[in-house]
Specification:
The protein is an alpha+beta fold and about 200 residues long. It has an 8-stranded antiparallel barrel with strand order 1-5-3-10-7-9-8-6, surrounded by 4 helices. The protein has one domain: 2-Layer Sandwich (Alpha-Beta Plaits). Helices cover about 25% and strands about 35% of the residues. The radius of gyration is 16 Å and the shape is globular. Strand 8 and strand 9 form a beta hairpin. It is built from 5 helices and 11 strands.
Amino acid sequence: MHAMQYEMTLPADYGMDVIRDRVARLGHLLDDWGGLGLKAYLMRERGVDGSPVNQYGPFYLWHTVEGMNSFLFGGPFQGLVDDFGRPVVRQWTGLAYEEGRAADTAAAFAVRRRTPVPEGVELAEFAEEAVNGTRRLADQDGVVLAAAGVDTGRWELVRFSLWSHREAAVSAASGGDGEVFQVLHLSQPGRKALSPGRQW
């Protein structure tokens, strides 16, 4: 599994209905994309659920690198680049994936937590705790799915989860390092191909 995200921070007075309309028109294009586990079309609005910015930030879980590369270098990504400019695309190597208690319900919100991997930790123990933490997260009420990955360039852990309702998502994000996004659409052609548990 490979996690990927890009974010476009938009002006404070930007009409976010432009993003909603774009996703409504184009979101289906990845509903059957080869190699894609899932794409969550995510948006944050300034002043909503603690967000300081207007932002469009889709999050991807890939089950093949070939699928990811075909999207980036030969697919719909070019349309986004043409319209908004080329964003920085963050990538994390997958550590864990779990279906949640609410796996059969629609995802309405997402929570992302990014934390540095501390200096001096035993990396095997840290990774195992990320796996266990993903399992615990997936077992919470309202969780559709949960995943964890690591960027070894920045030594950063990302925890990503989809939720069925706002209250649980906002509660899960509390504590200062969690960010809540609205899910505008979910393309999930290869969700069943994402292997559960630890990714090694």
